[in-house]
Amino acid sequence: MKHAKLLMRRQDNLNRIMRFSSVFQALDFVELIEVDRAQAQCHCITTNCYFKRTKDKLPAMIEGFHGPLIRSVTSLDISEELTPTFSTTFEQMSRQKTFKYNKKKYYWYFDGHLYFPNLDWDAVRVEAIFEGDISTYNCTTAEDCDYIQDKNINVPEYLFSEIEQLVLRDLGVMLNIPQDVQHDNKHVAR
């Protein structure tokens, strides 16, 4: 997975990874709780603003050029999509006079949690590229869960040849066996 992460980061830098639905996994129900401004990293906002964040930390995600590779954060029925931003950007937007007409819903990622200003929902759906298996987050009983070896690897197919070359190169370095020195009958000292 080490090489897959590296190559997917490179593809994110080239703005190619978001097109491949097969690499993204969804957390279908991520519970939200209310938090104060300090926890949400919005110290300067003082009026008519409340914040929610994910109750638990999200599973580790692959980091891209602009942060974790999150494709979408939506309502549970996927009817409304939230707009990604940063806490500082949201603070600046909220200070503008025309912000009261802005009806978009926003979120930002900080310290393993997603934060949501002025959101009335109890839960969200998150689609992202997670580093490990997230099936335990989506199943309620042990019978609902699949074994990790039964799951597909979430890597774009066109990267497999590059991953294979990198793995073989790593194995070649580790398994590099020195060659036997051939005897030269002319020189007895060898």
Report what the structure shows.
- With 190 residues, this protein is an alpha+beta fold.
- The protein has one domain.
- The chain is 21% helix and 22% strand.
- The protein contains four helices and nine strands.
- It has helices at 2-13, 87-94, 135-138, 160-174; strands at residues 25-35, 51-54, 63-64, 67-68, 70-74, 83-84, 106-110, 113-117, 123-128.
- The strands form two sheets. The chain has a seven-stranded mixed β-sheet with strand order 5-9-1-2-8-7-6, with no helix packed on it.
- Strand 3 and strand 4 (67-68) form a beta hairpin.
- It is elongated and about 90 Å long.
* Strand arrangement across the biggest beta sheet: 5-9-1-2-8-7-6
- Provide the succession of SSEs: HEEEEEEHEEEHH
| Overall strand count | 9
**N- and C-termini, Cα separation:** 45 Å
Structural class call reads alpha+beta
Radius of gyration from CA coordinates: 24 Å
Shape category: elongated
Helix content bin:
10-25%
What summary fits the major beta sheet? 7 strands, mixed
Mean of residue pLDDT? Answer: 75
What are the segments in which pLDDT stays under 50 over at least 5 consecutive residues?
none
The total tally of domains equals 1
Assess the beta-strand content as a share of residues: 15-25%
Number of helices: 4
